[in-house]
Amino acid sequence: MENDLAINLARIQFAFTVSFHFLFPAFTIGIASYLAVLEGLWLKTDNGVYANLYRYWLKIFSIVFAMGVVSGIVMSYQFGTNWSVFSDKAGPVIGPLMAYEVLTAFFLEAGFLGVMLFGINKVGRKLHFVATLAVAIGTFISAFWILSVNSWMQTPVGFAINDVGQYVPAAGWWDIVWNPSFPYRLVHTVLAAYLTTAFAVGAVGAWHLLKDKTNPGARKMFSMAMWMAAIVAPTQIFMGDLHGLNTLEHQPAKVMAMEGHYESHPDGAPLILFGIPNSKEKRIDYAIEIPNASSLILKHDMNAPLAGLDTIPDEDEPPVGIVFWAFRIMVGLGFAMLGIGMWSLLARSRKKLYDWPLLHRAAVVMGPSGFIAVLAGWVTTEVGRQPFTIYGLLRTSESAAPLDAPAVAASLLAFVVVYFIVFGAGIVYIFKLAAKTPEAHEPTPDDAPIRTAGITPAAAVLEGDHEEGAAT
């Protein structure tokens, strides 16, 4: 009993820390690419508005990046403390993949981050753009390796079990890295990061448009964000459907929990829109459903049979209530994002993109939607995998180290207090930066290092861009 409590506390601790951490890379991936686009447009057009927006969001990026690095370090230690059995058994597979992330993505980001943050007035424009592009590529590479690890835990292939019970590569790394769910999860997660950034940027732009609809920086960032929402939101819904079909093939119990299908449906399964999962009675209470629609979505045939959780042993069922509602939050927000994107296209077609306050207020309200959606998606993915850490092979209850419940509870409490103080302060500071009106003369950091000898500065060019930005 005490061991079960300790394991549950360890799970809560990891869920808490990874939830905080996941918010920052989701924003970092998108905002790094956004900065690369801004600087690329500045190089192409010489429009100072792009340069000023670059500086505006660069300050926010630096804070988010730092908080992402710090919050990620803590998770690594938990693998060796709370989940040492999992680390021992799965280490020969996941260890090298995580090492590749450090050797490629982290080194690339670390090598160019200083130039990106402090070199805007110290090096040539093209060289600085290369640094920005390198950091953006590094964030994608980081996502590549981490999602490969996670996907292998969801759909494990290409392994053998050695004499001491460890999972080891069977032949080569190709099957492990490109496991069945990885391509779908990679695209789905990266698109989610872009949408998260688009709606955060769009909310900031809309906030400033409500105060001054003539501000060139606010107009530009809102327009770019709405283009991203209009293009990426429908793409994400399409890719989400493909990802769901892949999950049905490889993790059917997860899809059963997402759909709330406690019972099998031999003649077509309904799409349950809302209801209250009742795991004790194995049913959805007060269900609002569309007949046969789930079979149409998942099998592309209204009368196709769909198996339910009655075909899964009780001890192998995921927690239906959490997965059921997390999935609906994610999907609901996805369609809300689509609605905002289509609304912005209507406003743009009528040349009213900057003149509809109701659209701007809706965009402000939708500002945190991407962060909520990625958390809901993470909960759907990870809780839907339970009761396994390596799906179908290694149970969560068998993955934990010998734990003492009071010790885990104390460390969990410490994490909660420290995280809310440290990261809460960082988030408040980000809000303060975002609340500042984007101006034509965004300052560079006061503590930028002096120019290295032999590097051509871009200060004179930037001053010209400042003047152009003020006139734009």
UniProtKB/TrEMBL annotation:
<feature type="transmembrane region" description="Helical">
    <location>
        <begin position="12"/>
        <end position="35"/>
    </location>
</feature>
<feature type="transmembrane region" description="Helical">
    <location>
        <begin position="222"/>
        <end position="239"/>
    </location>
</feature>
<dbReference type="InterPro" id="IPR002585">
    <property type="entry name" value="Cyt-d_ubiquinol_oxidase_su_1"/>
</dbReference>
<feature type="transmembrane region" description="Helical">
    <location>
        <begin position="322"/>
        <end position="346"/>
    </location>
</feature>
<protein>
    <submittedName>
        <fullName>Cytochrome ubiquinol oxidase subunit I</fullName>
    </submittedName>
</protein>
<keyword id="KW-0813">Transport</keyword>
<dbReference type="Pfam" id="PF01654">
    <property type="entry name" value="Cyt_bd_oxida_I"/>
</dbReference>
<feature type="transmembrane region" description="Helical">
    <location>
        <begin position="127"/>
        <end position="147"/>
    </location>
</feature>
<keyword id="KW-0349">Heme</keyword>
<keyword id="KW-1003">Cell membrane</keyword>
<keyword id="KW-0408">Iron</keyword>
<keyword id="KW-0479">Metal-binding</keyword>
<comment type="similarity">
    <text>Belongs to the cytochrome ubiquinol oxidase subunit 1 family.</text>
</comment>
<keyword id="KW-0249">Electron transport</keyword>
<feature type="transmembrane region" description="Helical">
    <location>
        <begin position="358"/>
        <end position="379"/>
    </location>
</feature>
<keyword id="KW-1133">Transmembrane helix</keyword>
<keyword id="KW-0472">Membrane</keyword>
<feature type="transmembrane region" description="Helical">
    <location>
        <begin position="56"/>
        <end position="77"/>
    </location>
</feature>
<keyword id="KW-0812">Transmembrane</keyword>
<feature type="transmembrane region" description="Helical">
    <location>
        <begin position="97"/>
        <end position="120"/>
    </location>
</feature>
<feature type="transmembrane region" description="Helical">
    <location>
        <begin position="186"/>
        <end position="210"/>
    </location>
</feature>
<feature type="transmembrane region" description="Helical">
    <location>
        <begin position="407"/>
        <end position="431"/>
    </location>
</feature>
